[in-house]
Write a structure and sequence with these properties.
Rossmann fold; three-stranded parallel β-sheet; alpha/beta; 9 strands; 7 helices; four-stranded parallel β-sheet; 13% strand; 2 domains
Amino acid sequence: MNDLILIWCRRPCSFGIVFDIDGVLIRGGSPIGGSNQALTRLYDDKGALRIPFLFLTNGGGVPESKRALELSKLLGIKIVASQVLQGHSPFKELVRRFENDLIIVCGKGEPDVVMSDYGYKNVLSIDEYASYFDNIDPLSHHKKWVVEKETSGSKYKEMDRNLDVSSERVQAVFVVSDPVDWSRDIQVLCDILRTGGLPGIGIGHQPPLYFANDDLHYQVSI
């Protein structure tokens, strides 16, 4: 990854910088005072990168390319996808293992778009997967809110629709970011894991479960 950044520099640099994002450069969707100016100093007078740098965050939920574009607009500098490492970026390393398997992803944002962008071909968000099973969420009738899903990532949704989701076993589950509806997602995940990847078929061998991060406590602003 560093090699990709170093090629932008006019002269080889013996070190690089890794920045956290939330609370360091940005807070509440706005740059923290001085962050723009500090990052600008990493470039020379001609706009070439003097010191390579990366953004590293345990957050995510959107493709690295989209996060790079958001950061570019907020910070006023050009940032590319290879400079952004999110909590789920390591999932790229598992593509060969699960590329053509049915996998379920959960989390806020666009978890299915993220995984499709990495190269997984049969990806379903937990929202869509739950819709194939009646009454899989026992509390659904108590929920008056609706999660609006972005459709901007529809170009990635080229899953093999000949696949019968209600009879195909899930081969792996990925928690890409912290879910919006934990009560529903925990129930569905337990059903998938305990039944060997196919709810309603009895106990089976548990498919792998991967977490982008296991944070259970976050700093919040009051």
